[in-house]
Design goal:
The complex is a heterodimer of chains A (115) and B (115). Chain A has 115 residues and is mainly beta. Helix content of chain A is 0%, strand content 55%. The radius of gyration of chain B is 13 Å and the shape is globular. Classes of the chains: A mainly beta (115), B mainly beta (115).
Chain lengths: 115, 115
């Protein structure tokens, strides 16, 4: 049973517009969430994270929103750039502070930003 | 600079052969992980280790084994390769359990083809 779900396999956005990538989770014990970006033929790289004590975390063009009651998080990219075209993975862990160390990943959303 | 490397980057083998994929990190991280990435499945955890002499099974561990004899290395062995194990394999590492940071750092991946 999938604990972290990314229901949109792909998303296409025009350059300069906002990209919104969504992620849902089922395990209420998750309390730390991360987004990774992956380019073809490379390993995933960490993008941004949020702990369950917050509802928003911002880093430059990237903002992650967490709605605990809905068990939903989203990644906003504003403005979107062609270099943002990649696969984005949502991940979650039990125990803020890495007490378990393990991450559960979603299946990923492929973002295409068109010039 | 600290890094995480994987070798080989590409491997073609035959069904039934034993294959070992190497992972080496110079971050001095205690936690190390092996994932496989397949279309439609995202990143799935194969095995993980929280330190020397510690190994644990992940979600898809059947047919794989790992050993941790030092901090830097976590080789992944396919005892008898099967076509279903054709995949891209990623190694990752992170700081200790209990650390305020549980971001995982990924290697570049190994593309394995089993014929």
């Amino acid at each position: 049973d999938q604990q972290v779900k990314q229901n949109s396999p792909s998303l296409s956005v025009q350059e300069g517009r906002i990209s919104i990538l969504n992620c849902d989770y089922t395990n209420s014990m998750f309390d730390y969430f991360l987004w990774y970006k992956k380019y073809p033929a490379e390993g995933p790289t960490f993008l941004i994270s949020i702990s369950s004590i917050k509802d928003k975390n911002e880093d430059g063009r990237f903002t992650v929103f967490l709605n605990k009651s809905a068990k939903h998080l989203s990644l906003h990219i504003v403005p979107s750039q062609p270099g943002d075209s990649a696969v984005y993975f949502c991940a979650a862990s039990v125990g803020y502070g890495g007490s378990q160390g393990n991450l559960i990943f979603g299946k990923g959303t492929k973002l295409s930003v068109k010039p | 600079d600290a890094e995480i490397t994987q070798s080989p980057r590409h491997k073609i083998t035959e069904t039934g052969r034993q294959v070992t994929l190497a992972c080496h990190q110079t971050w001095n991280h205690n936690n190390m992980f092996w994932y496989r990435q397949d279309l439609g499945h995202g990143l799935r955890l194969i095995h993980y280790s929280y330190g020397v002499q510690d190994t644990n099974k992940g979600e898809v561990s059947d047919g794989y084994s790992v050993s941790r004899s030092n901090t830097e290395d976590l080789p992944l062995t396919l005892e008898s390769a099967a076509s279903s194990q054709t995949s891209v394999y990623f190694c990752a590492s992170s700081l200790d359990r209990g650390s305020p940071i549980n971001e995982q750092f990924f290697g570049p991946g190994t593309r394995l083809t089993v014929l």
